[in-house]
Design brief:
This protein is an alpha/beta fold and about 700 residues long. It has 24 helices and 21 strands. The radius of gyration is 30 Å and the shape is globular. The structure holds adenosine-5'-diphosphate and magnesium ion. Adenosine-5'-diphosphate (ADP) binds near residues 282, 307, 308, 309 and 310.
Length: about 700
């Protein structure tokens, strides 16, 4: 790629210092722009297109194909209002190579008159197959005044993410103003050697290219986010997030915590009472945690391990360790149901040790809540289990030394930090242990959890029966239904999952609904429940509880099944449309079964024909039950354009970077972050400000 030649201009560009220096921007628009993280003109350059449209060339009508987005110039042959099913305005146009229908469902009388026969127009839109040949529904169009067309665009048209009150055209106009002002002084903070080592262009060149790609730009590469200009910016964005986490970490190292050293053998007695031996990985994790807890600055540790590897037992031992050192412990789960599960486990484990467990949930009646508050404030409660309610206004701890958070990907960095602040007493902060069952490849973990130390449990407790995994074409569904019936008649239970397809809530719902009716009919005599994303949390919990209690034997679910809910009697996991789902998510779902004595199975139903790529992916699940291997393969086998659901992984939301796609940039980013923080703190601050804005104050809550 060529370096941009310094352009020489006749008149010096206007200096743009404030947003209001831009034409058309007043205080109210400036306020709206701040929602896009835009505070000064330069920030607009970092609002990057989500995709592009090619309006640089005309396409002959005769060569159009369905699915194509194209600019067409043609003459109007006929305009009429028709009443077939739905009132619509049809405008038939032709350019001598073929003809095309423009279809409008919403139109005004003047619009209808403007589209008069014999006039020429230029239009843009997505071509589809209509009842009478090719058509475009609601095209953008302009009728020529005196058969005198304006010139075509010189660049691909960027489509920006918009926000309420800042429309596409407005945003494009503002960005163009900034580009035209040639802010050549925009600072390139990345070391040049590093950027060129990756064959990436300088910042300004990348920015200009992405806002105004030339007509011959590789649209496919741009759409996939793999263009060097995008990679240049992605690198900086990942760096910005990584820096902010590093900063948090450095700050934590300067904070004080109580050194928690056990005064008796409570923890040992607990381990001896468990009835099983901790695995090597569990022991190692626990030892590390105990060492951390003895430090005088806060532990910030992530305990990572597949579902069922025994994280809870480790957390319980850590909690007793803190109790034995004279401290209170708070254990927080993201839902009532998960919190209850912990409460029950801990009560069962701790009762023989005479360690009371206090329960605090949002659902408590006010008298019970007051009692809990009092026990927490006086220190009578040593271990408190609950949901977010643990850190609500009004909860005062006597001496909180350790906070344990389960399923941490539901909680963002912000929440994690604010927990620490809420648990603060004077200058002291509680130690933090967060647990997650989402396996993440190492380089990724080091980037997205840069504020945390990571312990991994890979070893499963001995004697676990692996879940038998099979992939079946969906036309064998009837056999699967029979298998469910057999299992349920033996007292077992089954999940039947319909994935969320196309991110459409309503489709999602219908799919699960119809599966639910199908199964209710096919499995007469069994109770089949339904749980989906449109239900309120309380409603979901009622259904989940009924399934856990055995009142429901089959649970049809969209992908909302609570991660971590333990139903040992569930032995079958059926997943519809498995070929469309991420491996990580399928693995999570599979982890819902295989928790009891009986042999369990996971049936991946797919809609054929299966592509080679999909075949390979499903094969990974058949071949391994190790979540870390699955995660790594997921990374390797991701197809072009596949987007990993953020919710699945808890990966942070970024504007241009995709941590999985751009994983190759991570090692460099880590090295760069360390260097910048040490040698160029000003540049580090500027990069965080540029990409994260006010949120970069993560480290200063
Ligand atoms: P996680 O929270 O990591 O998903 P749990 O802590 O809930 O896993 O453990 C799953 C099950 O395995 C629990 O019933 C737990 O008591 C049991 N378990 C934990 N550690 C061991 C071990 N070392 N040996 C045998 N069983 C274990
Ligand atoms: Mg768990």
């Amino acid at each position: 790629m060529n370096r941009p030649a310094k352009s020489v201009r006749e008149s010096a560009p206007v200096a743009l210092n404030e947003l209001t220096d831009l034409r058309g921007v007043g205080p109210s628009l400036a306020e709206k722009l701040s929602r896009l993280n835009v505070y000064k003109p330069e920030d607009l350059l970092f609002v990057l297109p989500m995709r592009y449209e090619d309006r640089t060339r005309l396409v002959a009508v005769g060569s159009l194909v369905p699915g194509q987005r194209a600019v067409v110039e043609a003459e109007i042959e006929l305009t009429e209002v028709v009443y077939r099913r739905r009132r619509s305005l049809l405008c038939r146009v032709s350019d001598g190579t073929g003809s095309l229908t423009l279809r409008f469902f919403y139109f005004s009388r003047s619009q209808q008159h403007g589209l008069a026969r014999g006039k020429r127009l230029r239009c843009y839109g997505e071509v589809r197959k209509g009842s009478g040949g090719l058509e475009i529904i609601h095209p953008e169009y302009r009728v020529f005044r005196d058969n005198d067309p304006s010139p075509l665009d010189e660049h691909l048209t960027p489509i920006y993410p918009t926000t309420e009150g800042v429309q596409q055209g407005r945003l494009r106009n503002l960005i163009n103003q900034v580009l035209d002002s040639e802010p050549g002084n925009i600072s390139d903070w990345l070391p040049e050697a590093l950027v060129s080592e990756h064959g990436l262009p300088p910042l300004w060149e990348a920015i200009r290219y992405l806002h105004r790609p030339p007509p011959d730009a590789e649209l496919e590469e741009l759409d996939a986010g793999r263009h060097p200009c995008q990679q240049r910016l992605a690198m900086e964005e990942i760096l910005a997030h990584h820096l902010s986490l590093r900063k948090i970490r450095r700050r934590a190292e300067t904070l004080r915590s109580e050194s928690l050293q056990p005064t008796d053998d409570l923890c040992e007695r607990f381990i001896a009472s468990l009835g099983f031996r901790l695995t090597g990985d569990q022991q190692k994790a626990l030892l590390t945690i105990r060492t951390d807890l003895a430090q005088t600055h806060p532990m910030m540790r992530l305990l990572q391990g597949d579902v069922g590897c025994g994280k809870t037992a480790v957390a319980a031992a850590a909690a007793l360790n803190a109790v034995s050192a004279g401290s209170q412990v708070a254990i927080m789960a993201p839902t009532e149901l998960l919190a209850e599960q912990h409460r029950d486990n801990f009560m069962r484990w701790f009762a023989p040790l005479d360690v009371p467990v206090c329960w605090l949930s949002g659902a408590l009646k006010s008298r019970q809540r007051q009692q809990a508050y009092e026990a927490i404030a006086t220190g009578k409660a040593r271990i408190v289990v609950g949901t977010h309610a643990l850190f609500q206004e009004g909860v005062e701890y006597e001496n909180l030394g350790l906070v344990i958070v389960d399923e941490q990907h539901r909680f963002g960095v912000h929440q994690r930090l604010s927990l620490m602040e809420k648990g603060a007493s004077g200058t002291h902060r509680p130690h933090q242990l967060v647990m997650t069952a989402t396996p993440i490849p190492r380089t990724l973990a080091m980037t997205m959890y840069a504020d945390l130390d990571v312990s991994v449990i890979r070893e499963m407790p001995p004697g676990r029966q692996p879940v038998q995994t099979v992939a079946l074409s969906e036309n064998r569904r009837a056999e699967v239904v029979e298998r469910v019936r057999t299992a349920c008649n033996l007292g077992q239970r089954a999940y039947w999952v319909c994935p969320l397809i196309e991110e459409s809530e309503s489709l999602d719902y219908q799919d699960a609904e119809s599966t639910h009716s199908m199964l209710t009919e096919a499995l007469a005599g069994l109770s089949v429940g339904l749980i989906h994303g449109r239900m309120k949390n309380e409603e979901k919990e009622v259904v989940m509880k009924a399934f856990a209690a055995g009142d429901l034997q089959v649970l049809v679910a969209t992908t909302v099944i609570e991660v971590g809910v333990d139903v040992p009697e569930a032995t079958l996991m059926i997943v519809e449309n498995a070929e469309r789902m991420g491996l990580a998510q399928l693995h999570q779902l599979r982890g819902r079964v295989g928790r009891g004595q009986e042999l369990s199975a996971c049936v991946l139903l797919y809609r054929g024909p299966l592509s080679e790529h999909a075949r390979q992916r499903l094969g990974v699940l058949r071949d391994t039950s190790d979540g870390f291997v699955v995660a790594q393969k997921d990374l390797e086998l991701r197809g072009p354009g596949e987007v990993l659901g953020k919710r699945q992984t808890g990966l942070m939301q970024m504007r241009i970077a995709d941590l999985i796609r751009d994983a190759g940039l991570l090692p460099q980013v880590q090295a760069m972050a360390e260097m910048l923080l040490d040698k160029h703190p000003g540049a580090a601050r500027a990069i965080m400000q540029r990409w994260i804005g006010s949120a970069s104050e993560y480290g200063n809550v």
